Amino acid sequence: MTQPPPLPPPHLRDPGDAWVEGPDGQRFWGRFGAAGLLAWHPTAGILLQHRAEWSHHGGTWGIPGGARKLDESAADAALRESHEEAGVPADQVTVLFESVVDLGFWSYTTVVVRVDELFAPVVADLESLELRWVALNAVDALPLHPGFAASWPALRAQLPAA
Q1: Distances from the Cα of 81 to the Cαs of 90, 141, 154, in angstroms?
Q2: Count of beta carbons in the 10 Å neighbourhood of residue 146
């Protein structure tokens, strides 16, 4: 599939589901910013999502996430999006920390969680080609989403020793 699935009609769409354009013309998804969940398990590694070809930076690997809703916290957005996209059970994770990239007009928050009970991720929507637990030392071997690639070294350095 090279085209995104159709959006719901405007009256049913969340107001956060929209593009934001930066001063240089670069576009970012989420009128109220966006958030993603870096789910880490001490032995399995991190949960990565192979992004659908039609999506922004399609074909790359990153973390489940998406647009924040109005007045939604980053943690709530990341947990909601990761459940919608990958079946991440919110009651089986513990939030460790958040990392924010703030561009002034738009922000992205990575919510890092420890997975307390390993689960099998489920491709639950059309945004994923595949979901996979990836060992920390194997993450860099994948073609990563540019934003995730830029943040991964600092995020990895903050993970507890396994």
Answers
A1: 11, 25, 23
A2: 12
